[in-house]
Amino acid sequence: MNSKYLLVVSLCAVLFTNAQSFKIPDSLRNRNFDYLFDRIEDDNNSSEQRSLYLQSFLMKAKMEEHWEELSNAYKNYVHYSPDRLKLIYADSMVIAAKRSNSNEIIGSAYLSKGIAYYSQKRLAEAMDIYLIADLYIKKTNDKYLIYKTKYRIGQIKLYLGYYNEAVSIFQQCISYFKDSNDRAYLDSLHSLGICYSKIGNYGLCTSINETGIAEGIRIGNRDMEPYFIHSEGINQCMIHNYAIGIEKIQSSLSGIRANKDFSNVMIGYFYIGKSYWGLGNKEKALAYFEKVDQSYMERDYMRPDLREAYEFMISYYKDKNMIKEQLRYVEKLLEVDKKLHLTYTYLQGKIRKEYGTKELVDEQQKLKNSLNIRKYNDQISIAIIGSMFLFIVYGIVRHFKNKKESRKRYEELVQKIENMEKAKAYKADDSDFSISKGAEAAVLHSLQKFENSKKFLERDWDLTKLAGYCNTNTKYLSLIILRHRGKKFNEYINGLKIDHIAQRIRSEKVLQKYSHEALAGEAGFSTTRRFVKAFVGCTGITPKYFIEEAKKENIRG
Length: 557
Prior knowledge:
Number of strands: 0
Helix content: over 70%
Low-confidence stretches: 1-14, 346-364, 421-432
Strand content: under 5%
Oligomer: single chain
Mean pLDDT: 82
Number of helices: 27
Order of helices and strands: HHHHHHHHHHHHHHHHHHHHHHHHHHH
């Protein structure tokens, strides 16, 4: 343990020394953060090139004391660094974010830190950090972050066994993401289906899986299709349709392997093995249980439901009177249980531990379970009918509420576009404004020229470059923009771009057929992600919804 700690400290010292001596290359000195981020994300770059862009981004943020981008710089390192350093960079990311005094930036940093813990399967700690993120994010109007946090907390609750709480969270996420983020919408559907299977609502699980596949086809995003098939295979195994379960899980594994998702491959192996065991083919089942054990040895990862693989292997070798192998897996099971206890305390208490009890007690428990299952199935039938009714009513109410809110925002944006020329300038407090009236008028003239000429559509504007264009310094320019436009610099530039493209979408029907990527280019954004985020931030609605409403206006007009 001490040697690992010293290794991390030594690596951090080396990295700190390198950061202090690093100088941004001349070719990158005048590049903005968007440019550097796009190069970091470019998979065509070598690891050496990515390292150069990572260091340049970090050093630029430090030199400019730009706390939001410094937090983003460390977030980049969290994403691309080895596991042993991710949590160290996550701490630096949060420290930088706190200096911004922005709830949105701090909340986003804590959320990313929680994801870093989750990726290392430190779920209890991840949950604590997600809850801290939630405290900050709830104070903002950033709905994407609010629901992203909800989804992450839902994932933790799912794996800890709080299934009913997780169901409620995923239903909320589905309602929000359906019109704003296709992949998050499909992820939420998939997680909801797993919850239903876990609590015994197998029919609802099947319905959700079918909906997920159909929705993926409808919106043109089939990335999650293997996962819905995988989920349905497990669901069929749970209701003893073993042959169907095996077929579905096996057909899903190639797509899941392509994503390098070892945990779901491992889960697939277990349920294939369990299905073969249910069919009486114990030799085939054993081969898949051994694959589960191999994955555990290689990845040091285990889920509470997968521990049953060891119980099956112990039972198999006991029947064969192979004491050595039986003892080996008994010891393995004790090791697994000890590890699981640290993270999955709640869920572990709900899983039956059948090994080690006497045969008479086993038989007694089976009889009790049979009686309880009959009673439970009766309760489930009633609960399914009631849940389906409530779910349908909730979905209808939520749909119309979201539609009404989005329509209101659309109308507000249209009004803003139509009255843009009549908007009054924002008046800031004069107490902190020391620039002369003549200099102020000159900068305002340059800003007006900047806006009229549509130069804001160029992609590489930052505060320093615009200050040079207006022949002033960054401090005065920030104050003038705040005083006369009522916005900070990034809000000002994004607002100009979004107002421009929204106006064009309404007036130029051909743009209503453009993809988000093409619209991002027309508006001067370097990436589709930044365009969509800016559009939602400025208007409260997605570009997709705005275009749909604009098309309806054309029909009505």
